[in-house]
Specification:
Length: about 120
């Protein structure tokens, strides 16, 4: 089993920055894909960004150029640096782990974290 622990959510003003982290533990495969997804009230969960253990990434068009996903030192922790945030970025952000290499978004597959709230408001 894999466990995911997320941290870093909170309240941030429009135009500000916030960093989320997701630490994976347990039976981690040597090849995997980890990502961040978000769900706003009344909307479906959507991909924000993902990264594979080979370093390939995929970003939602709405966050390209503003958010960066990274996996420093190839350890089992993934970060999401959120810059120039907008009110429409407000959502619960979920970390996801899948024991496969793919840049395709998860369709509810894999392991999910408990979620962390990000609120962008002045």
């Amino acid at each position: 089993q894999v466990q995911l622990v997320e941290s870093g959510g909170g309240l941030v003003q429009p135009g500000g920055s916030l960093s989320l982290s997701c630490a994976a533990s347990g039976s981690i495969f040597t090849i995997y894909t980890m990502g961040w997804y978000r769900q706003a009230p009344g909307k479906q969960r959507e991909l924000v960004a993902l990264i594979t253990s080979h370093g390939s990434t995929n970003y939602a068009d709405s966050v390209k150029g503003r958010f960066t996903i990274s996996r420093p030192n190839a350890k089992n922790t993934v970060y999401l640096q959120m810059n120039n945030v907008k009110p429409e970025d407000t959502a619960v952000y979920y970390c996801n782990y899948r024991p496969v290499i793919t840049t395709q978004p998860s369709k509810d597959r894999g392991t999910w974290g408990q979620g962390t709230q990000v609120t962008v408001s002045s």
